[in-house]
Design a protein that fits this description.
Blueprint lengths: L11 H15 L11 H8 L3 H13 L3 E4 L3 E4 L20 H10 L19 H13 L14 H13 L9 E4 L1 H13 L5 E6 L3 H10 L2 E8 L2 E2 L1 H11 L3 E4 L13 H14 L2 E5 L13 H5 L4 E6 L11 E4 L2 H15 L4 H11 L4 H25 L3 E2 L8 E5 L6 H9 L6 E2 L12 E5 L6 H11 L1
Parallel strand pairs: 4-5, 4-7, 7-8, 8-9
Antiparallel strand pairs: 1-2, 3-10, 5-6, 9-10, 11-12, 12-14, 13-14
Helix pairs in contact: 1-3, 2-3, 5-13, 7-8, 9-10
Length: about 450
């Protein structure tokens, strides 16, 4: 049906999409023609199943194919006089929206070095199973809606955990959410209006940047350094743009892994006080940190800091339980917005999270997890350095390494070629405020120990 060239600079997925699209446009493949199944196509052209799935999905999105359940993929009738508008065109590479969707749709890829979660066997699966059994045996009703702010016993447990981190807050100032993503989204919608200047880490948390762009914010990037913040740049940007909000991740930041020290946190709060700046602190990696460091929230006690946490990184991303702690007035606004957009969060997941939080074996699990991540950092950092990569920082904790190679000027092409070989990378432009090409890329050390990754990189850089 078509000829593919694995050595060509054009990714295999793009080759398939362009070739089949051209054949349909030219009439060689007529309306109603059934294409080979995904597995048949993969075997016939010696490509991965993932490559074919991605190509067929793009052709469906572009209107060339239609998927019929239990039947397969068929050529769809297209009106030649009405080409797909440019605004709806499917990107040929990784853009933020494509990445956000595909990284979850293809979570079963063998090598997911670009993802933002831990492998299943690194998580607290035993604790979840014990919790499920306990919930199954519990006579408490699971019908109806939960509490608007979330399951009260879990909110109380969160307050106890925050107290250990020197943040004093009552349960009434804690709102449970569907993961930290909903918490961030609520903060964005409450604090940001279209056209507002908003400070963010640069490079920064990709999902947050996407949400802020969708809201119409004008992103102002605060340069991240291996030692935390560029404080001189921060103060200059605040004076120039007069933002009202700073979304930041001081601890084990994504994508760089860097950590802002205590002196910098004090200075950030001084700048915030001087310029009436609200700070949204995304501290979702706190349980991965072996050091008992202070947070902005612990120094500020939620006077102007909104604190966001999550159980997705250490218990399971599947239970979708996060939280936000904030000043009482602001917290009530966030709770109202939560109810308007989705009513209450799922109490079953919150009760399951609580059972894991209270499990006596959890502290031991967290200690072992931190040690495992430290070992992964050492191993992956050594392997990347041996291939010629420069490491931005070496935190020895958390999930991420931010690295670049002198032979790479833009990691987008490399990521496209990797995706065609079932390797999901984290190209650096996704984490940049301006989305411009960059030679940096993010590695999740928990997935980066796979030899297939290093074999691919060696072939590309050799």
């Amino acid at each position: 049906m078509l000829t593919l060239d694995p050595q060509a600079p054009l990714p295999l997925v793009t080759q398939i999409v362009q070739s089949l699209g051209r054949q349909i446009d030219e009439g060689a493949l007529r309306e109603g023609t059934k294409l080979p199944s995904i597995r048949q196509f993969a075997q016939g052209h010696q490509v991965s199943v993932f490559t074919v799935v991605e190509a067929y999905d793009r052709l469906v999105a572009q209107g060339y194919l239609v998927s019929r359940p239990h039947s397969g993929f068929f050529v769809r009738r297209r009106a030649a006089a009405e080409p797909l508008p440019a605004a709806q065109a499917i990107p040929q590479g990784f853009d933020s929206a494509w990445y956000l969707r595909r990284i979850f749709e293809n979570r079963h890829l063998p090598v997911k070095v670009g993802c933002g979660w831990l492998p299943g066997d690194w998580l607290f699966e035993d604790g979840l199973r014990r919790g499920l059994r306990a919930l199954a045996a519990d006579d408490a009703s699971l019908s109806g809606y939960g509490d608007p702010k979330g399951y009260p016993p879990l909110r109380h447990a969160i307050c106890e955990a925050l107290a250990e981190r020197q943040v004093s807050v009552p349960p009434s100032q804690v709102l449970l959410t569907q993961g930290s993503s909903q918490a961030l989204d609520l903060a964005v919608r409450r604090l940001v209006r279209a056209g507002d200047a908003v400070l963010v880490d640069d490079p920064g948390y990709a999902n947050l940047l996407f949400s802020l762009r969708f809201q119409g914010a004008r992103l102002v990037g605060v340069p991240r350094t291996p030692q935390g913040y560029d404080l001189a740049a921060l103060e200059a940007l605040v004076a120039e743009h007069r933002p009202k909000v700073f979304f930041t991740q001081p601890r084990l930041q994504s994508p760089t892994g860097s950590v802002a020290p205590l002196a910098q946190l004090h200075r950030v709060l001084q700048v915030a006080e001087k310029h009436d700046l609200t700070i949204v602190e995304n501290d979702i990696y706190v349980e991965l940190d072996p050091e008992p460091r202070p947070s902005l929230a612990s120094l500020d006690q939620l006077a102007r800091v909104i604190y966001i946490g999550s159980y997705s990184k250490t218990i399971s991303p599947n239970i979708r339980v996060g939280f936000v702690a904030a000043h009482p007035d602001l917290l009530e606004d966030l709770a109202q917005m939560k109810m308007i957009s989705g009513l209450t969060s799922a109490e079953f997941g919150e009760r399951l999270a609580l059972s894991a939080v209270l499990d006596g074996r959890r502290r031991k699990h967290l200690k072992a997890l931190r040690e495992r991540l430290a070992q992964a950092h050492q191993h992956v950092g050594t392997r990347l350095s041996a291939l010629g990569f420069e490491l931005f920082a070496e935190p020895g904790a958390g999930m991420f390494l931010w690295a670049r190679h002198p032979r790479l000027t833009d990691t987008l092409g490399l990521s496209n070629r990797a995706a065609a070989q079932d390797v999901m990378l984290g190209p650096g432009h996704l984490f940049r405020v301006d989305l411009q090409p960059t030679d940096w890329m993010r590695f999740n050390v928990a997935f980066a120990g796979d030899e297939r990754l290093f074999a691919f990189l060696a072939r590309e850089l050799g």
